[in-house]
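Fold this: SHSP domain-containing protein
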Amino acid sequence: MKVHPVPRITLRYDIASALAQANSCRQKKLRRMTHIFAKVLELPFHSDADVSVEETSDSLKFTAATDDISGEVRANAVEICPGVTKVVVIMGDGVLDLSGNEFELDLWRFRLPASTLPELASAVYGGGELVVTVPKGGEEEENGGGDIGVGRLVLVQ
């Protein structure tokens, strides 16, 4: 039986330090890029859920079939940072965490057009379907031209 000596090349390199260096480069922190989309709708379903989207001249309507909802449902517009608004649907007596520390990746999201008014979004649950309606603004906002008027939005509850 012939025994082969250990090659000297493995003794010249410090493999442990090379692996430590490679791992230190991979441990970069990811930053959130909340400024990419100004208006987003987030539904409490997985990203692969079947959601029907209907667009009319005055609103966007999102419909999803579910049996997991009990109690009251409401839509809240949360301003994440100046100019960035996210519409979230809260079920039951759920508490909305405004800290922004949660990082749910697998949620159903939809980028809302600039003409929508997320502050006036509403959510209704009935007959096994969750329906979220996000109204649109007037034609002046969509076209971006014409007379620039100063208006006030009054929300009565």
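The longest strand covers residues 73-81. The chain is about 15% helix and 30% strand.
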